[in-house]
């Protein structure tokens, strides 16, 4: 709404003057006229506005003239109430309440007082929409809870105290549903409630014993009467109990077990929809939190719940039919483009995605809409339109209800009512208001139509194309007819495709499908067959997708996902046709199918900071003690981003170097969170370890990456070469209730990190971890102190271990310790070395690797002859391959960094080669040749990995690159007479 009201129309001035005269007459009768000046000029000015708008406020001031003074007391009209202030005011009003009749009277008068205050602040623009709805909801919470507490004491006096079988006292839980649950109550809402109690039992201490259920039924009846029954003072809130199990025919109160059993066995989709907003508004808050946790699996399925789409679509159609049948076009809540449609849009996404995306597990619709924008479920522009429309519609609803405190959302038809609404919402006349309203509702209706729309609406000739394949799948056609259709559709091996379809139908998983799942499969398969024909190689696409179909046969919600999202199915076919590795990954972990829903996100990899923040935000939504869910979140994060990386690589939107960057950033983001989780768990169990100076450690621990992760060169399926280093006092005990020595603490910390990375769950392992590069290898300590690591590197390490250190860097952990590790690395690598001895040791190590890991031709010494197609070339291990380039770089760093410390700046081979060129140590053309060869080899290895093939190619490939690398190897590391291995 605008910040100020326009000038009052002449048609409303007489109404204002009438109400003002009545109030002044009431002041005279109450003897308060002489005190009018105490109310102040601001009050008088705003009073004129409010009286012109609200007959309800005018009536309350006439009936109770002293209310004006209570309103201005402590500035309550001109300021927002502090948290808890409203409840405190009610508690003061209920002091010394002696009977149910007196309770009812005081609740109603309190409600009238607060209703006037809330309407006043809303009409005068002192309160924004969220404050108005929050105050109304807080008032309801306070009235329900304080009435419950008073009546509970009364019932315990009469009937005894309800206890469970162990004698533990029981208290009722009151769930607020709908707008109350979402803290979005309007000016004249009814309140939807559900009553529950924890456990069965009986009362004790009363005149006669009652079952707990009977006790709470009587208490619930009294609570409803206290709030709902009309008296001379009106009512507090109209109470609606129809959302409870079985509706009006069900018991008024249920035990937790009964509620859980009902929702698990009989809960309907509309009840899931309603339960999204459930909140404990009164009674036992702690027990209520347990109840909501019990019911959460009913509301939010663990994975993507596209199976809910049919129910949502039916509900949407019901909404549309109701609008048409009941003539609700002038209803701002229920009409087309109204408040209910905005809420439906948000809650549809919550039901479908909320099980996996906990950020959607919230109640207020404005928060849900913002999350839809933040997480790319809806475009930001669409969310902004829905948000603006919702706020305008809610302001309109409040204006309608502020007039008479009447539960209505219907637009007025009389001229005075129309003039009032237009003026209250800041418009010059009804036509201007109606034009804005129609525009807002039109935008909502457009977005509403797009939510869970029929997937065929946007497809060109979808039904005819799919219907052609129904007889193929359902067995109507005989084999010759099927083969003829497959051939005509472009299948090169029609008999093979037909056999695969028959094998799928005859598989144990498909035969075991329940009726609903089989119906979904029968709808999905004709669509799949139709779209497979669009691929360049339909045989390959079908061959690679069918294992996924079989894998998800018993989780057919994934079939619904692909049926409902033709674009996702098309992306799936493209990716699977391009890469059997991707097809296998999706078949093993179908949860990542969600990533196919947003092609823009699928092919737009985030940068390092975005990756880290995305994972951190996802883990923040999970309770700290829920390790299982944390591990599943970590695994889903990796699977989803691996798919995005592979898709971008196949599409050509992500070059090789960026692929490795992305994979490495992802690993670092995961390691960071794994370390935080492991550290938090260890500290909670044992307390903090000590430093040498006696102070307590604050994650004085780093994870050092070697090899591909250290060199920012991770590939698909790479394991992680890691070393753990700490900077604590290994002898001093931790400061927790169960203290252990620092050395044990850090060892167990390292074990927890490895456990979280290696453990196989339903979503697989995060990474295979190789710790053999730690000091003394497998026989050494799992975690080293920086001092012992330094001692080993300076006094005991072999040359090959220093070669490995060239590509080592601290990935995550303590920044201070990272700086000290970098300094140590520079000290070790930058020492003066005997270049002749170094050359022999590097060459000998390389020859051992060729002998053990190279192809037969390389082991036989074929390194410079003409390479032929018959001789396979191992991209990594053979002469002229990746390892030769890596060894040349490592030799150069070890030999020359004592004079050129800039060689220690980076850990990846490409940039080290740049530094070698900048220092004039290797000619520019030679550096370019090595870099191009290195990138070409790695790109080929990536492509082969995506095809599930080993890193070997025909021997006649990369001929020039191989010869160039071999030539440079002979220049940089010429053959030497062998000498015995010695320690550095």
TrEMBL record:
Residues 314-451, 871-948 form the PII-uridylyltransferase/Glutamine-synthetase adenylyltransferase domain. InterPro entries: GlnE, GlnE_rpt_dom, NT_sf, PII_UdlTrfase/GS_AdlTrfase. Coiled coil: none annotated. Residues 1-456 are annotated as: Adenylyl removase. Involved in the regulation of glutamine synthetase GlnA, a key enzyme in the process to assimilate ammonia. When cellular nitrogen levels are high, the C-terminal adenylyl transferase (AT) inactivates GlnA by covalent transfer of an adenylyl group from ATP to specific tyrosine residue of GlnA, thus reducing its activity. Conversely, when nitrogen levels are low, the N-terminal adenylyl removase (AR) activates GlnA by removing the adenylyl group by phosphorolysis, increasing its activity. One of its GO terms (biological process) is regulation of glutamine family amino acid metabolic process. Belongs to the GlnE family. The lineage of its organism: Bacteria, Pseudomonadati, Pseudomonadota, Gammaproteobacteria, Pseudomonadales. One of its GO terms (cellular component) is cytosol. It comes from Halopseudomonas oceani. Its EC number is 2.7.7.89, 2.7.7.42. Residues 464-984 are annotated as: Adenylyl transferase. Pfam families: GlnD_UR_UTase (PF08335), GlnE (PF03710). It is an enzyme of class 2 (transferase). GO terms for molecular function: [glutamate-ammonia-ligase] adenylyltransferase activity; [glutamine synthetase]-adenylyl-L-tyrosine phosphorylase activity; ATP binding; ligase activity; magnesium ion binding. The gene is glnE. CDD domains: NT_GlnE_GlnD_like. It catalyses: [glutamine synthetase]-L-tyrosine + ATP = [glutamine synthetase]-O(4)-(5'-adenylyl)-L-tyrosine + diphosphate; [glutamine synthetase]-O(4)-(5'-adenylyl)-L-tyrosine + phosphate = [glutamine synthetase]-L-tyrosine + ADP. Residues 46-292, 571-822 form the Glutamate-ammonia ligase adenylyltransferase repeated domain. This is Bifunctional glutamine synthetase adenylyltransferase/adenylyl-removing enzyme.
């Amino acid at each position: 709404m605008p910040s100020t009201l326009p000038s009052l129309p002449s048609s409303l001035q007489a109404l204002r003057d009438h109400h003002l005269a009545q109030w002044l007459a009431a002041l005279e009768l109450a003897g308060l006229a002489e005190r009018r000046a105490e109310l102040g000029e601001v009050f008088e000015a705003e009073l004129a506005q409010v009286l012109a708008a609200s007959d309800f406020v005018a009536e309350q001031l006439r009936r109770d003239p002293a209310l004006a003074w209570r309103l201005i007391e402590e500035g309550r009209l001109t300021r927002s109430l502090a948290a808890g202030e409203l409840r405190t005011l009610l508690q003061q009003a209920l002091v010394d309440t002696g009977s149910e009749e007196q309770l009812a009277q005081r609740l109603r008068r309190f409600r009238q007082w607060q209703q006037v205050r809330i309407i006043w602040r809303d009409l005068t623009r002192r309160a924004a929409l969220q404050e108005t709805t929050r105050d109304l909801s807080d008032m309801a919470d306070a009235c329900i809870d304080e009435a419950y507490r008073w009546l509970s004491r009364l019932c315990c006096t009469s009937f005894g105290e309800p206890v469970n079988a162990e004698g533990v006292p029981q208290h009722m839980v009151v769930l607020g549903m709908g707008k109350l649950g979402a803290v979005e109550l309007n000016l004249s809402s009814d309140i939807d409630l559900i009553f529950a109690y924890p456990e069965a039992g009986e009362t004790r201490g009363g005149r006669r014993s009652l079952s707990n259920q009977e006790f709470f039924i009587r208490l619930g009846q009294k609570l409803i009467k206290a709030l709902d029954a009309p008296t001379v003072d009106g009512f507090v809130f109209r109470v609606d109990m129809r959302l409870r199990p079985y509706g009006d025919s069900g018991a008024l109160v249920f035990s937790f077990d009964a509620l859980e059993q009902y929702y698990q066995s009989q809960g309907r989709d509309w009840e899931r929809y309603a339960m999204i907003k459930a909140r404990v508004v009164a009674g036992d808050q702690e027990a209520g939190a347990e109840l909501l946790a019990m019911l959460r699996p009913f509301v939010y399925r663990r994975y993507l719940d596209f199976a809910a789409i049919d129910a949502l679509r039916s509900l949407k159609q019901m909404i549309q039919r109701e609008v048409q049948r009941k003539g609700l076009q002038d209803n701002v809540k229920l009409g087309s483009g109204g408040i209910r449609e905005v809420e439906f849009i948000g809650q549809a996404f919550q039901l479908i995605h909320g099980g996996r995306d906990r950020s959607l597990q919230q109640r207020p619709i404005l928060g849900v809409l913002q999350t839809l924008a933040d997480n790319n479920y809806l475009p930001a522009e669409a969310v902004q339109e829905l948000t603006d429309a919702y706020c305008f519609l809610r302001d309109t609803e409040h204006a309608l209800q502020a007039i008479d405190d009447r539960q209505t959302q219907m637009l007025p038809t009389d001229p005075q009512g129309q003039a009032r609404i237009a003026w209250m919402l800041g418009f010059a006349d009804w036509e201007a208001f109606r034009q804005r309203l129609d525009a807002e509702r039109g935008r909502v209706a457009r977005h509403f139509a797009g939510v869970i729309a029929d997937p065929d609406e946007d497809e060109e000739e979808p039904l005819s194309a799919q219907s052609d394949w129904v007889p193929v799948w359902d067995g109507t056609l005989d084999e010759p007819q099927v083969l003829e259709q497959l051939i005509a559709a472009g299948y090169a091996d029609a008999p093979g495709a037909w056999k695969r379809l028959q094998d799928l139908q005859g598989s144990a998983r498909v035969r075991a499908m329940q009726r609903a799942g089989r119906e979904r499969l029968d709808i999905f398969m004709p669509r799949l067959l139709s779209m497979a024909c669009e691929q360049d190689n339909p045989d390959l696409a079908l061959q690679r997708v069918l294992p996924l179909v079989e894998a998800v046969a018993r989780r057919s919600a994934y079939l619904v996902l692909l049926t409902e999202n033709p674009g996702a199915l098309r992306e799936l076919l493209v990716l699977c046709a391009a890469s059997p590795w991707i097809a296998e990954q999706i078949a093993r972990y179908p949860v990542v199918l969600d990533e196919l829903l947003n092609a823009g996100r699928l092919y737009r990899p985030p940068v390092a900071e975005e990756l880290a923040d995305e994972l951190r935000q996802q883990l923040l939504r999970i309770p700290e003690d829920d390790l299982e869910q944390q591990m599943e979140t970590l695994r889903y994060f990796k699977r989803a981003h691996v798919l995005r990386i592979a898709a971008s690589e196949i599409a050509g939107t992500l070059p090789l170097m960026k692929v490795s960057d992305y994979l490495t950033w992802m690993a670092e983001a995961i390691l960071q969170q794994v370390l935080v989780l492991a550290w938090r768990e260890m500290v909670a169990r044992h307390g903090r370890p000590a430093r040498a100076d006696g102070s307590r450690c604050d994650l004085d621990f780093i994870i050092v990456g070697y090899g591909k992760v250290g060199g920012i060169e991770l590939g698909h399926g790479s394991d992680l070469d890691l070393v753990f280093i700490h900077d604590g006092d290994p002898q001093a005990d931790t400061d927790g209730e169960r203290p252990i020595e620092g050395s044990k603490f850090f060892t167990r910390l390292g074990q927890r990190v490895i456990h979280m990375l290696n453990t196989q769950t339903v979503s697989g392992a995060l990474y295979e971890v190789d710790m053999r590069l730690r000091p003394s290898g497998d026989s050494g300590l799992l975690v080293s102190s920086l001092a012992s690591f330094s001692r080993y590197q300076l006094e005991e390490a072999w040359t090959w271990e220093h070669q490995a250190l060239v590509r080592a860097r601290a990935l995550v952990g303590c920044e201070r310790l990272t700086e000290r590790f970098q300094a140590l690395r520079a000290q070790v690598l930058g020492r003066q070395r005997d270049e002749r001895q170094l050359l022999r040791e590097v060459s000998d190590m390389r020859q051992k690797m060729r002998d053990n890991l190279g192809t037969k031709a390389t082991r036989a010494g074929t390194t410079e002859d003409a390479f032929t197609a018959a001789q396979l070339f191992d991209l990594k291990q053979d002469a002229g391959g990746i390892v030769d380039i890596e060894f040349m770089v490592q030799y150069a760093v070890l030999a020359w960094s004592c004079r050129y410390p800039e060689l220690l700046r980076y850990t990846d081979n490409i940039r080290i080669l740049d530094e070698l060129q900048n220092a004039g140590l290797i000619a520019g053309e030679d550096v370019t040749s090595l870099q191009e060869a290195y990138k070409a080899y790695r790109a080929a290895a990536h492509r082969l990995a995506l095809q599930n093939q080993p890193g070997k190619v025909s021997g006649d490939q990369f001929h020039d690159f191989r010869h160039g690398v071999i030539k440079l190897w002979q220049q940089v590391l010429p053959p030497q007479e062998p000498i015995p291995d010695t320690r550095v």
